[in-house]
Amino acid sequence: MSRVGILALGPAGVGKSTFCNSIISHMQSIGRRAHIVNLDPAAEATEYEFTIDIRDLISLQDVMEEMDLGPNGGLIYCFEFLLNNLDWLDEEIGDYNDEYLIFDCPGQIELYTHVPVLPTIVKHLQQSLNFNLCATYLLEAPFIVDNSKFFSGALSAMSAMILLELPHINILSKIDLIKDEYSKKQLKKFLNPDPLLLSNEDEEFNPKFSRLNKLIANLVDDFGMVQFLPLDCAKESTTISTILSYIDDVTQWSESQEPKEPAAEELDEEDVDYD
Ligand SMILES: Nc1nc2c(ncn2[C@@H]2O[C@H](COP(=O)(O)OP(=O)(O)OP(=O)(O)O)[C@@H](O)[C@H]2O)c(=O)[nH]1
Ligand SMILES: [Mg+2]
Known about the structure:
By secondary structure, this protein is an alpha/beta fold. It is about 50% helix and about 15% strand.
């Protein structure tokens, strides 16, 4: 028996909710079950229903109206409220076992790069609810296929990695939007990047900042964990099953499965005379 959770993280609009839906439909197609836990108090309706929804506890709209707060202050308020009411989350999660819970998080990356809101929720899920968690951090492929933007994206991914202290998978989303041959070639370079090479080859960097750029490249290189898996949610593709196999691996999902009794029809198939 095991409890497995995936956190879908990344800046606004990178495709987190679409990714969550794609995992659900892929899992359904291979006979596994998963549920979405919506942690975005400003979420719009999606194709798949949320099994657990923070908006049942508190919604951004209500907070903004009643507390006279803006969207970002309102979001922080919602999460502080959640942290003070974690027993609500415990009750909602209840007895979900042997099924993935996918936590769809808001796009305000301050929540996991600056303020300790998500790290506190993560600790609670691990320590009180016994979850095996895997963080997925999405960045848009069309954004990152550019040396300077690559470094800004890599640093934000590293920041989430360090703050959350979870097994972490970086994902380049929307690769279907990379269409021309030159960009496709560039994309390959960014999936398994060499930060030192990237910082050397960019003449567009202002030479005034060359030392700083080199130091940042060295930092990313020393960290040695910035790699990306490609994701295309626009059409049925193998990218989602590859990503899921990585997640299964880091959460040790298959090891924790109890051996199942074979179904009657499987037994019939096995009843073949091989002589
Ligand atoms: N072409 C393409 N578009 C995508 C893909 N994934 C998501 N999108 C589009 O990107 C937009 C944003 O997607 P969402 O899934 O809502 O992104 P999000 O990260 O959940 O956004 P926030 O929750 O607001 O931060 C939508 O219009 C999606 O249809 C993809 O793989 N390819
Ligand atoms: Mg979303």
